[in-house]
Amino acid sequence: MRQELMSLPKGLAEEVSRNLVMVAQLIDEDPEQAYGYSRVALRLASRVAAVREAAGFAAYATQKYSEALAEFRAARRMSGGVELWPVMADCERGLGRPERALAMAGEPEVQKLDKAGQVEMRLVAAGARRDMEQLDAAIVTLQSPELASSAVHPWTARLRYAYADALLAAGRENEAREWFAKALESDKDGATDASDRLAEMDGVEFVDAFDESDDLDGADDVDETDDVEASADAGVDDVELDEDDDELDGDDVEFDDEDDEDDDEVERGGDKG
After folding, report:
1. Within 10 A of 230 (CB to CB), how many other CB atoms are there?
2. How far apart are CA 108 and CA 92, in angstroms?
3. Most buried residue among 64, 65, 69, 265 by CB atoms closer than 10 A?
4. Residue 89 near residue 124 (C-beta atoms within 8 A)
């Protein structure tokens, strides 16, 4: 990216860089704001591939799939790379065109992707199968050496999670529970909600230890107690005053399918949901 920005005048390059940094920082927690920064960068330097790519991801994060696809295509034309191929296919899914995503999964570009990109493509293809209500095909699409491997990679948890979710959708609950557990085991960064899905399958409900309404009720009780004590104190004072006035009166909260038959079918990544 730095190399690309060096083609711009220094002041402009710095301003574009600042906006791209904000996109990267906000895209997960505040996608809409990240999108706003991406539009500023795009207005300043639309001929820089990194800017078009950032604009694409910001649009993708806000579900503006048509816009995202256009930006990804522009970035790919400028850079000549294939790394955006899976997310471009996922945009086709977002636009309601899963058949196009599947077609892209069978293109030669997939063979040029690195291992992570191929797994992403497999995830997208499986998602497209599910969009088309082809659950068994989705399950077979995810079955691969990467899924069977005991090695843990950055994409392992998401691959296992997608497989578990597909199994559950097909009614294979015992297998799904096993693979959700495997996804959780490999999910060191909290990329999935596998723990919640397991708890849901086991009928476990989480209750907040702190209930705000209880706290408010307690506060009311305290206030009432304070009022009573205040009244009591007032009463004592009144009694003492009465006594002073009348002192003469006295005191009172493993997958079991070996099927690699679909390896030629599609590779993917990026389960959108």
Report:
1. 10
2. 18
3. 69
4. yes
